[in-house]
Design goal:
Blueprint (H helix, E strand, L loop, with lengths): L1 H15 L8 H23 L3 E7 L2 E7 L7 E3 L4 H14 L5 E5 L5 H4 L2 H7 L2 E7 L6 H11 L5 E4 L4 E2 L2 E5 L15 E3 L1
Parallel strand pairs: 3-4, 4-5, 5-6
Antiparallel strand pairs: 1-2, 2-3, 7-8, 8-9
Helix pairs in contact: 3-5
């Protein structure tokens, strides 16, 4: 609301000629200095804030954790191929993301991670984390085979492991469930 009010006030003052009057230059200079101080304070206070954005996708979701500084940014799942093209890629592009610090594939559900190959071609990831649990999904197996070509990028995690500020809560390497959703990685950070 403050940005909106400031923008329209400045626009109205400029277009009406109010700001151009010689006797008001001190007031206009003060207003500009005040706006500069406000935006500098706003930028400084938001610079250290972490944000968590959940993108609801068709039958799945993608979660983007934007840490201060960008070294701990994390994308958790990405959606199916059409969701990656229509939602995930445009979202990351709008945020200025051209490389991911971490990308987590929680489980072998193609609605959650089916577009991972397409996403990794568009935005490379420094580290891709996968579960130690096995999955039968063809899309999951395909992305794991692709990641095995560059083993330094892939990290297999299980309950008790830590990476950055995150701790893996579930599953353990020996967990076996009939459904992929029961083996999804659960993280705490």
């Amino acid at each position: 609301p403050a940005d909106l009010a400031l923008y329209y006030s400045a626009l109205l003052a400029i277009l009406s000629g109010y700001a151009a009057a010689r006797r008001r230059w001190k007031w206009m200079a003060g207003a500009l200095i005040g706006a500069a101080v406000y935006y500098a304070w706003d930028w400084q206070s938001n610079r250290a804030a972490a944000t968590l954005t959940v993108l609801p996708l068709n039958g799945g979701d993608a979660i983007y954790f934007d840490a201060p500084g960008g070294r701990q940014d994390l994308l958790i799942d990405c959606g199916n191929p059409s969701a990656v093209e229509l939602v995930t890629k445009p979202f990351l592009r709008a945020r200025g993301v051209n490389r991911l610090s971490g990308f987590v594939l929680t489980h072998g559900d193609s609605r959650q991670m089916g577009g991972a190959e397409s996403l990794l071609e568009f935005i490379p990831a420094y580290r891709v984390l996968t579960s130690a649990a096995p999955f039968r999904s063809p899309a999951y197996r395909r992305i794991v085979q692709t990641l095995e070509r560059t083993p330094e990028r892939r990290r297999i995690v299980q309950a008790g492991d830590r990476f950055g500020p995150w701790q893996v809560l579930h599953p353990r390497a020996n967990d076996r469930f009939a459904r992929a959703d029961d083996l999804a990685l659960a993280l705490r950070g």
